[in-house]
Amino acid sequence: RLISVLRKALPGVPPEEIFWGYHFVTGSFMHSLSRSGRLDRLSGGLCKSDNLKAVKARMADFMAAGFMTLKKR
C-alpha cells in the first residue's frame, strides 16, 4: 500500500526511484526499531536508541524529505 501511495504522491518519479526510496526508508525504520545501542555509543549518550518517542518525533520528517528529493532519471 505504501508504494501505491508514494506513486500517487510523487507523479513523474520513476517507479525504480520509488522502490529505492522505499528500500532505504524501511531499512532505516527497521534499524531504528532494533534499538541496538549503536546510536547511544556514537552520540556519547546524547541520543538513546530505545527512545522511541524521539524516533517518532523525527523519522517521518526525515523520510519525507528523502522522498521529496527523488527526481526523474
Structure write-up:
With 73 residues, the chain is mostly helical. Helix content is 68%, strand content 0%. It has helices at 2-9, 15-34, 38-42, 52-68. Helix 2 (15-34) runs antiparallel to helix 4. The longest helix is centred in the middle third of the chain and has 20 residues, at 15-34. The chain is elongated and about 40 Å long. The model has no long low-confidence stretch (mean pLDDT 91).
Which keywords apply here?
73 residues, 0% strand, elongated
Helix content: 55-70%
Structural classification: mainly alpha
The fraction of residues assigned to DSSP E strands is under 5%
Provide the gyration radius in Å. 14 Å
Sequence stretches where pLDDT stays below 50 over 5 or more residues: none
Tally the beta strands. 0
- Cα end-to-end separation: 24 Å
- The helix/strand order is HHHH
Rounded average pLDDT: 91
C-alpha geometry:
elongated
Number of helices: 4
Instruction: Report the sheet with the most strands, covering strand number, pairing sense and barrel closure.
Output: none
Describe the structure in brief.
Helix content is 68%, strand content 0%. It has 73 residues and is an all-alpha fold.
Topology of this structure?
Blueprint: H1 2-9, H2 15-34, H3 38-42, H4 52-68
